[in-house]
Task: structure prediction
Amino acid sequence: MLKFIKNHMESIEGIATYPMISLLIFFVFFTVLFWWVFTATKQHISEVSAIPLEDDNNPLN
Result:
């Protein structure tokens, strides 16, 4: 089965660009995420972390 898939994929022209594009998207996403984590203010982090604990507008009560 793997041999069939490998032979089929090798017959497609330009197939080698897709792994490079996915690697680039992966790298850019995690680089931006890493940058956001280290530049976020402590006030923003504390506000966001308190969101699940807020009880106003709770339709279950």
